[in-house]
Write a structure and sequence with these properties.
Blueprint (H helix, E strand, L loop, with lengths): L4 H9 L16 H14 L10 H14 L7 E6 L2 E8 L9 E6 L18 E3 L2 E3 L7 H16 L8 E6 L7 H9 L8 E4 L4 E4 L5 E10 L1 E10 L3 E2 L8 H14 L8 H11 L4 H12 L4 H9 L10 E9 L5 E2 L2 E10 L5 H12 L4 E5 L12 H14 L4 E7 L5 H6 L4 E3 L4 E3 L11 E3 H18 L4
Parallel strand pairs: 3-6, 3-7, 7-17, 8-18, 9-16
Antiparallel strand pairs: 1-2, 2-6, 4-5, 5-19, 8-9, 10-14, 10-15, 11-13, 12-14
The structure holds zinc ion (ZN).
């Protein structure tokens, strides 16, 4: 789940008075009770890397779907090493077009019970929160998508198109299950688009009031490159005119001086339009000006000057590590620098390598390391944006819904790269001060979980219903 800069800016713009969280216990509806029961069961599986528990949890989920009447042929448990994916097809009547994928991941980041105040593998409700590893990243999503399927099945809802749950098994580590799906199970993923629970989401003021809702529509590509200079070397008492370290230093100065061209997409302009309304002073003005005309040089210059903004309008590359030489009294035979790049959606990884090569010249070797994957921004489809807005407004009427480009990577990256437009539309609203994903004492507001059930129920019925 990502927090957006927009929410941070609005937080600055609005002075939030303190209010004690209410903690009223209410009677649960049967759907809420079932959702909670599934959530609690999922938290109890230690699905962090190396425990082999993802397939066990997936098998338990598969049984719930079978019991609800989904035929075995539409339930696919796909092992990859010690983990697995689970794909479950809820058949529609086919009148509404291609299927919609509904994504989340079943694995969690490791949690050592010794470090936690409460047992991380028991769902504990306390003071208006659900505590436990995976409560926010992202077993809330697995529980919500699963229990919504079960509820719709019970109500004998027949969608106009197939709704397909795709739960991956190692999003937090290798993403091997994700790659296995897009490479080896294309038939299961044939879809109009994907909705990812593990992206987007809402933010709450410290008072508990909803602030904004973000739909994640794009992710920048993470890529590392190495600059390498080789040299015959020799004795340091006989310095030669060429020297691997000096050549590498010259090359690095060229990388430092180079600025990638300004770029934007529909998400960039929509984000700046929304943030420009609340961001203070000249930064807010630059956002508004850029949103109106991305070729406005003064606006570009102002945004580029701000380290928190520069990456939003271009590819960035920066030197992060160095190694070179082999002895204090020898001329270096090689020198290597790592260049870390965050590539704007739509730009090829190889094109960035070529640009770096052009900048540093032929004496320096530029190579791509670690097999990065690039993905395009997904189009801001009105049908998706409008349906998400309608469903969000059912739980938080009138809240502003804004597209968002993330700088990190999720499973959505591989789906976009495989040509499936992917929208991060998680249903949880949370305060910035309650965001403990990956950390200790991970938690979500109890109300956020139950609201999320209503939101996904509304969203699936809307997108899978007749229009
Ligand atoms: Zn996640």
């Amino acid at each position: 789940m990502s927090r957006t800069l927009l929410s941070a800016l609005i937080a600055l713009a609005i002075a939030a008075p303190c209010a004690a969280a209410t903690n009223a216990k209410t009677t649960l509806t049967p759907e809420q009770a079932r959702g909670r029961e599934i959530y609690s069961k999922l938290i109890s599986y230690k699905t962090s890397e190396g425990n082999g528990q993802v397939p066990v949890m997936a098998a338990w989920l598969a049984q719930q779907f079978r019991d609800a009447g989904i035929p075995d042929a539409d339930i696919h448990l796909l092992p990859v090493g010690e983990t697995a994916s689970l794909v479950v097809r809820y058949r529609g009547d086919g009148t509404g077009g291609k299927p919609i994928l509904l994504m989340a991941h079943m694995d969690v980041v490791a949690a050592d019970p010794k470090d936690w105040t409460r047992d991380p593998f028991t769902l504990i409700e306390e003071n208006g929160y659900f505590f436990g590893r995976g409560t926010s990243d992202v077993k809330d999503g697995v529980a919500t998508l699963s229990s919504t399927f079960l509820r719709l099945k019970k109500e004998k809802f027949v969608p106009t198109r197939d709704l397909v749950i795709v739960f991956t098994g190692d999003e937090e580590t290798q993403m091997a299950t994700t790659q296995d799906l897009v490479n080896n199970h294309k038939d299961l993923l044939d879809a109009d688009y994907a909705l990812n629970y593990d992206g987007g989401g809402g933010t709450l003021e410290e008072t508990g009031q909803p602030r904004t809702y973000s739909i994640q529509t794009a992710e920048k590509t993470y890529a590392d490159y190495e600059l390498t200079v080789h040299n015959p070397g020799g004795h340091s008492s006989w310095p030669r005119p060429d020297n691997a370290i000096y050549q590498l230093a010259d090359a690095l100065k060229k990388v430092q001086a180079y600025k990638f061209p300004t770029m934007w997409n529909d998400t960039t302009l929509a984000e700046f339009t929304a943030e420009g309304k609340v961001a203070p002073g000249e930064l807010g003005a630059a956002m508004r000006d850029f949103a109106k005309n991305p070729r406005d040089e003064a606006a570009v210059e102002r945004l580029t000057r701000d380290t928190s903004q520069i990456g939003r309008t271009r590819t960035t590359c920066v030197a992060t590590m160095l190694r070179g030489g082999h002895a204090k009294n020898a001329l270096p035979q090689s020198a290597v620098a790592n260049i870390n790049c965050r590539i704007f959606p739509g730009v090829a990884i190889e094109d960035v390598r070529k640009t770096l090569q052009e900048q540093v010249g032929p004496g320096v070797e530029v190579t791509t390391t670690d097999h990065p994957t690039a993905s395009d921004a997904s189009p801001l489809r009105p049908d998706v944006m409008e349906a998400v807005t309608r469903a969000i407004h059912k739980i938080h009427p009138g809240v502003q819904v804004v597209p968002n480009q993330a700088s990190g990577a999720s499973d959505g990256l591989y789906f976009r790269a495989a040509g499936i437009p992917t929208y991060g539309v998680g249903g949880m609203f949370i305060k910035d001060s309650d965001s403990f994903a990956h950390g200790l004492n991970e938690r979500v507001p109890v109300k956020g979980f139950y609201d999320g059930l209503d939101y996904w129920y509304a969203l699936m019925k809307d997108l899978g219903g007749k229009h």
